[in-house]
């Protein structure tokens, strides 16, 4: 377990977000400004370019640089939110052994950054509605003795349920909140990209 595993995650995530860019943008066209797929694809392409030109010694260095790349390349709500997630994720792992427990703490720290920036609460129809059940499922799996792949698989499954549960919700944060009641009946784009990121982590991290 080392920095190469996290490089694999970021590369796989970039591929998944690229493959799903049209889908994410379609979701955002219903309740936003039809750019979420393009935003995520642009940000993760820039991360791949970074990985192609730089080799990283540590996970914290890698994730912090990935986060800074998202902040600088992706506008809108999702750039600063995902950027902060990766920055905090990296910071939490500085000097730490890479275990299911410390990686879980890094996920929690990353999501704490999303909350600090975006002020979302559960049920606001945002990416947090995927992250929150994912963190709970991850921690429960680790407490039950799961390895990293097992905990991430549980997290990705919980994120997918949280994503699906955003459909009937009325948005209370972000652009979708401008629609009020008309935002109900549509799946949140950010909860969808969060699920893709976690599915990618479950595929790539051992
Ligand atoms: P923008 O809305 O600026 O065009 P994107 O379309 O890239 O940005 O991202 C939209 C997603 O960002 C939403 O689907 C939602 O999940 C997430 N989001 C928006 N505002 C917040 C917030 N305050 N907290 C958490 N997530 C948010
Ligand atoms: Mg948008
Ligand atoms: Mg936008």
TrEMBL record:
<dbReference type="InterPro" id="IPR050861">
    <property type="entry name" value="Dihydroxyacetone_Kinase"/>
</dbReference>
<keyword id="KW-0808">Transferase</keyword>
<dbReference type="GO" id="GO:0019563">
    <property type="term" value="P:glycerol catabolic process"/>
</dbReference>
<feature type="domain" description="DhaL">
    <location>
        <begin position="4"/>
        <end position="203"/>
    </location>
</feature>
<dbReference type="InterPro" id="IPR004007">
    <property type="entry name" value="DhaL_dom"/>
</dbReference>
<dbReference type="GO" id="GO:0004371">
    <property type="term" value="F:glycerone kinase activity"/>
</dbReference>
<dbReference type="InterPro" id="IPR036117">
    <property type="entry name" value="DhaL_dom_sf"/>
</dbReference>
<keyword id="KW-0418">Kinase</keyword>
<dbReference type="GO" id="GO:0005829">
    <property type="term" value="C:cytosol"/>
</dbReference>
<dbReference type="InterPro" id="IPR012737">
    <property type="entry name" value="DhaK_L_YcgS"/>
</dbReference>
<dbReference type="Pfam" id="PF02734">
    <property type="entry name" value="Dak2"/>
</dbReference>
<protein>
    <submittedName>
        <fullName>Dihydroxyacetone kinase subunit L</fullName>
    </submittedName>
</protein>
<feature type="region of interest" description="Disordered">
    <location>
        <begin position="180"/>
        <end position="206"/>
    </location>
</feature>
């Amino acid at each position: 377990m080392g920095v190469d595993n996290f490089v694999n995650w970021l590369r796989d995530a970039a591929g998944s977000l690229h493959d799903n860019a049209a889908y994410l943008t379609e979701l955002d066209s219903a309740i936003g400004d039809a750019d979420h797929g393009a935003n995520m694809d642009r940000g993760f392409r820039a991360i791949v370019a970074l990985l192609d030109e730089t080799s990283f010694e540590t996970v914290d260095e890698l994730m912090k640089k990935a986060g800074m790349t998202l902040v600088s390349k992706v506008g809108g709500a999702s750039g600063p939110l995902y950027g902060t997630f990766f920055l905090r994720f990296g910071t939490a792992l500085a000097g730490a052994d890479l275990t299911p427990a410390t990686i879980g703490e890094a996920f929690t720290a990353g999501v704490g950054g999303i909350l600090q920036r975006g002020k979302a609460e559960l049920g606001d129809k945002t990416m947090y509605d995927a992250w929150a059940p994912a963190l709970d499922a991850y921690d429960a799996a680790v407490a039950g003795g799961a390895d990293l792949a097992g905990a991430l698989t549980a997290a990705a499954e919980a994120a997918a349920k949280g994503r699906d549960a955003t459909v009937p919700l009325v948005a209370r944060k972000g652009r979708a909140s401008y629609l009020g009641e008309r935002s109900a009946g549509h799946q949140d784009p950010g909860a969808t990209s969060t699920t893709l990121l976690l599915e990618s982590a479950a595929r790539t991290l051992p």
